[in-house]
Structures are given as C-alpha cells and as structure tokens.
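Ticket #342: bound-state structure for iron/sulfur cluster.
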Amino acid sequence: MNRWVTDLLDWYKNVKRPLPWRETQEAYRVWISEIMLQQTRIEAVMGYYQRFMEAFPDVQALAQAPLEQVLKLWEGLGYYSRAKNLHKAAQEIVMRGSFPDQKEEIQKLPGIGDYTAGAIAAIAFGKEETAIDGNVMRVVSRIYALEDDILLPASRKKVKEILEGVYPSGEAGNFVQGLMELGELICIPKAPKCEICPVQEECKAKTEGRQSVLPVRIPKTKKKTEERIVLLVEEQGRILLTKRPEKMLLGGLWEYPNVLTADPARVPALTQEKYGMQLKIQEYVGEVEHVFTHVRWKMRVYKAQKKDAAGFAAARREYKWADEKQLKEEVMLPTAFKKIIG
Ligand code: SF4
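RESOLUTION: The complex was predicted; output attached.
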C-alpha cells in the first residue's frame, strides 16, 4: 500500500470524530448526512441531522412524510432543492425496494451527484469508489503538488485517477472519510497544520514549501447582483405572503411580495404585472442583503398596502395571510426573507 495512504488510514482510525452519522454505516444515514453537509459546516448540520432522524428514522418514514414537514425541518439550512430531492429520492428508493449499492445506480437518484454517490457507495457498501469534493481536491493537489486549476473538470479527472491508483483494498469507507477528515481538520485552505499532519513526510507541497500557493484556483467571474424591492403588507395583524413558482430558485416556498427593481415608483405597475395585485409603497423600512451561490440579492424593504380595499380576486400567484405565530412555526420562509423580520 502506498505510504501516505497507510499513514492516512492509521491516523483516521485513531482520531476520527464521533459524529452522529458515523454511529452506523447505514446507507440512509450516510446519504442524509452527506446531503446536509453540502455547502454547510458540520457544526451547523448536527442539530438538523438529529431532528431529521427523530422525525424520519428510515427511508420509509421520509417517503411517507408530507413535503411541507420535510421542508420545515430543513428551514434555515438553505438550498431547499436538496430537501425536495431527498423526499423524491426516498419515494423512489421505497418503490424499488432497497437502497441501490452501485455508484451508477445511486447517482440516478434525484439530487445525488458524483461525490455523494461515491461517498455512499464507499462508506455504506464498501465499494472502491472515490468521493471528490473541494477538500479532497485540495489535499491531493498538495500531496502531489499539482499545478492544475482545481476548478477545471480535467483536474478532477486527474485527482480521481491518482486516488484510483493508490486505492487501499478493503478500506473504502476509511479511505474516503480519512481524506475528508484530513481536509476538514488538518489540510485546511489557509494555514494548513503541516506540523501535525499524518502525511507530512510524503507531501510534496510541504517538502517544497508550497502549501500556501497550492491548490491553484482561478476565480470565476463575480456574482451578479439583483436589486429587489420587498413589500411588507400588513392587515389585521397578519402579513401577506406569496408562493414562489416551483421551477424557480427557492421554488414552492413562501415569500413576501417583491419585485425586481430599485425604483419605488415602479412598484404598483410591477406588482400588477407579476402578481395580478397592485401594491403601493407606504414607508421605507431598511435594506437587507442575501448571497446565493450565483447571485446576490440586494433587497430594499418597504411597508406597503393594497391599492384598493378589495381582495386579490385576480391574483396570479398563490397567496396567504400569516400571523406572527404561523410565520415562526408553520410557514416555510427562505433565509433570505427571514432576515427581513430578524
Ligand atoms: S503536509 Fe501540509 S500541505 Fe501536505 S497534506 Fe499535510 S497539511 Fe496538507
């Protein structure tokens, strides 16, 4: 076995953190944890994972639950399409009778990409598959002192080939998790802890003193900014919410009415066009910003009211009124909008 791989495995077996999803290697648990951990820190995931497991202890329970309940338990984790896909995939798994154990089959489930499929196949089923995310790209780029831009698909392919070439037989779960653990705890992006690293003697970047310049990462173009006006319409202690269309970012979730403009004068016309209900601005409340993966929302918040006393008979979007309690306990409000009421 390759020396750095042996050192990594020995280290991982000794120091691995007792994370709740490591208590068993059941595919269902590995899957839920891997999806929750995408773009989210371990500390933030812990509570969510435990609550999720209490509500849905197995794939059948998740498949049978109403989507609203799944989304409610996801509230605050962001990237809600992950929760919707989990629900859909659970139903597919129940239909097929068992969790697939081959990477190619796992990857056909909604919301499961190459990394997650590899992680589940290796950890839950002991298959010799790789699971390559940003952490693993960084670790391998440093150990082998690779100069390739890690954002390019070709670099990922190269790292995959390297890992396949040194894959330790019968150690799939430990190898995949050991690499993740090394990337999360020791070989961190800034100031890697080389002096306590288990593979320091075999690491080319360390030998050459190039840890701080590797991996090579050429930044993508800047995020685009969208300016929005968000409207808080209150009536008898309740606030107006509208539902986002299914196919959009945050699709199917509730939000305060909002329009894509920075100009308050355009609000009546734009709300009429978008919602089929005319709203007009009363008073400025403040400004809130929310950053998604590809876009930044700059939101100017105003109190607003309906143009006339009539209801919204011709409303184009599903809407409802919610009081404070409903807003806190029942309604699925994305983080971008939760920030508005604090
Ligand atoms: S020696 Fe340093 S750069 Fe190399 S893998 Fe370990 S922490 Fe990363």
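RESOLUTION NOTES: The pocket of iron/sulfur cluster is lined by residues 139, 142-143, 186-187, 192-194, 197, 199-200, 203, 205-206, 211 (CB under 6 Å).
TICKET STATUS: resolved
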